[in-house]
Specification:
293 residues, two-stranded antiparallel sheet, 2 strands, 74% helix
Length: 293
């Protein structure tokens, strides 16, 4: 009954929520400003620089029609879908959604759930984890989870021929890639600033300890959550496990960014696959840790 009531009154509830947020911003403006500065620092010094190069390079390769030099068919995928997987791996989420908009195999959205590798090694490993061995275990667990989900969905592969004879000059490819990169980063940055309101609310209003708040904030926005977890006095194994959960689930912030790139995403199914991805990643992570001990 409660769920039905929420559905029927969703618009009114959202209006009330945003009015309350406005009051919160007014009353806790100083606290919110501190959180906004913290988010901007994370974006400027860890997130955006690494993501800029990855998004630009993957976009440039796409505009240069990378798929034309790839095998015509591999694992029952056409060369265009192979390109999408490669570029999704290079640029990471949420930018993978942009490439998937051109694919007939929409199910690939569930198995291209990759964290940006440059961001992870350059920022997360060097600044937060500071243990390349553990970072590689996290990445391997994360990638293998996506491969398993791909295998689960392999029977849904559609056989089709992709044709695109539109020629794009080198200069046009460059400027188009720059525009796509700026647009992607602006969407990411805007969503992060919006989510920061809820991060501030979690820190200042809800009566949880710092460990619980770090978990909740990580599920809400993973880069802030990773930063907070790295500061906690807990074992390296537990830090690695929690960070793996954050990057596999992606966080609500990443989900909103992905919806911004493609509002046609089936939200419930997409979230369920994120949860499955996270569970598989956890299992693989623990198996690798056990085998190495």
């Amino acid at each position: 009954m409660l769920f039905l009531f929420i559905l029927l009154n969703m618009k009114k509830i959202l209006i009330l929520v945003f009015l309350l947020l406005e009051l919160y911003i007014f009353y806790y403006s100083k606290n919110l400003l501190i959180e906004e500065i913290n988010t901007i620092n994370i974006c400027l010094y860890t997130l955006l620089p690494s993501m800029f190069y990855s998004i630009f390079i993957s976009s440039f390769l796409s505009n240069l029609e990378l798929y034309k030099i790839l095998p015509k068919r591999l694992f029952n995928l056409c060369n265009k879908d192979i390109e999408i997987i490669i570029l999704s791996l290079l640029s990471g989420y949420p930018n993978n959604i942009r490439f998937l908009n051109n694919s007939n195999n929409k199910y690939l959205i569930y198995s291209t759930n990759f964290v940006n590798p440059i961001f992870f090694i350059l920022s997360v490993n060097n600044l937060y984890i500071k243990d390349i061995k553990l970072s590689l275990i996290i990445l391997i667990s994360h990638y293998l989870s996506n491969i398993i989900i791909f295998i689960i969905n392999k029977n849904k592969i559609k056989h089709y021929k992709y044709n695109n004879d539109n020629f794009i000059s080198l200069s046009d490819s460059y400027y188009k890639s720059i525009n796509n990169t700026i647009k992607s980063l602006s969407i990411i940055f805007s969503n992060l600033l919006f989510i920061t309101i809820f991060i501030s609310l979690l820190k200042n209003i809800l009566p949880f300890n710092i460990f619980t708040k770090s978990i909740l904030i990580g599920l809400l926005e993973f880069s802030n959550g990773i930063f907070m977890i790295s500061k906690l006095n807990i074992s390296l194994y537990l830090k690695g496990l929690i960070i793996l959960i954050f990057i596999s689930f992606n966080s609500i912030s990443i989900f909103l960014q992905q919806l911004s790139f493609n509002p046609k995403i089936k939200s419930v199914k997409f979230l369920l696959y994120k949860i499955l991805n996270t569970i598989i990643s956890i299992i693989i992570f623990n198996v690798i840790i056990l085998l190495m001990n």
